[in-house]
C-alpha cells in the first residue's frame, strides 16, 4: 500500500454523510465532541473515529489546550477539493458551450451559403 | 486486469460518470463535429489552451492524438476509439499521453485512473440532438476506482448539497 495522496484522503473523508454533517455543523462555529454527537444516533467512540478521519485529512483541527478539545473547521483543504471538483465540472460545461457556439457558427455559414450560392466560402 | 472486448462497451453496468445535453443540430452534424479533426480543433479541449490535432484515425483502436499548450508547456491527450457507429454511437477510452500517444498518469494526481471509458449516444428529436455521455475508469485498480467514484459522487451530488453550502460559507470568510 502506498501512502494515499492528499486528494484521495480528502475525498475519502468527505465520502461519509455523517462526516459531512459534522463539517456543516462546524461551519457554524467550534463544537465539542459531545455537542457534535448530539444530533446523531451513534456512539461517542464512533463520532471520535469520524473526527480522527477528518483531522487526519486536515479538514478540522482540535484545540490542544482546552479540556474539552473543541473542534474547528479548517477550510483550506476543503477549498482545494472544491476547486478541483468545480474545475472538472467547468471543463465539460465550457467544452459544450464552445460546441454550442461552433454549431451556431456552422449553421450561419450554411445559411449564408444558401442565400448566396455563388459566393465562395469564407 | 485485462477485460474482454465485449465488457469494454457493455452498458449493463451503472457508469459513474453521466452527463446529458441537448444541442440545436441534427445528429449527423453533431457526430461529425465529434469525430472530424478540423471540427474538433474548433471546440474541444481545456479553455485557455492552444489545441492542436496531431492525428486522428477514426477506426476501432485508432487514435485521436491532440496536444495542448499553455505558457510554453506542451501536454498531450488521446482518445482510442472502441466502437464507431455513425451517427448514433461513439465509444472511446481517453487518457493523458506522451507525444507518441502512450498513456501516462494524470499530471494532477498519481492515483487518477490511467484510462477512462467514454460512451456517447446521439439521439435526435425534432432536429435537435440529445447527447448522453457515460463513462468511468477502465482497467483501473480498486484504489484508482475508489478515488474516481468518490470524486464523481461529490461532483454529481455536490456532496449532497454540502459542498455548495460550504462554498457559500467559504465565500463569506
UniProtKB/TrEMBL annotation, chain A:
SMART domains: HTH_ARSR (SM00418). CDD domains: HTH_ARSR. Residues 1-93 form the HTH arsR-type domain. Pfam families: HTH_20. Transmembrane segments: none annotated. Gene3D superfamilies: Winged helix-like DNA-binding domain superfamily/Winged helix DNA-binding domain. InterPro entries: ArsR-like_HTH, HTH_ArsR_DNA-bd_dom, WH-like_DNA-bd_sf, WH_DNA-bd_sf. It comes from the Bacteria. PANTHER family: SLL0088 PROTEIN (PTHR38600:SF2), TRANSCRIPTIONAL REGULATORY PROTEIN (PTHR38600). This is Transcriptional regulator. It comes from Deinococcus roseus.
TrEMBL record, chain B:
Pfam families: AHSA1. Residues 24-171 form the Activator of Hsp90 ATPase homologue 1/2-like C-terminal domain. It comes from the Bacteria. Gene3D superfamilies: 3.30.530.20. Coiled coil: none annotated. Signal peptide: none annotated. Belongs to the AHA1 family. This is Activator of HSP90 ATPase. It comes from Deinococcus roseus.
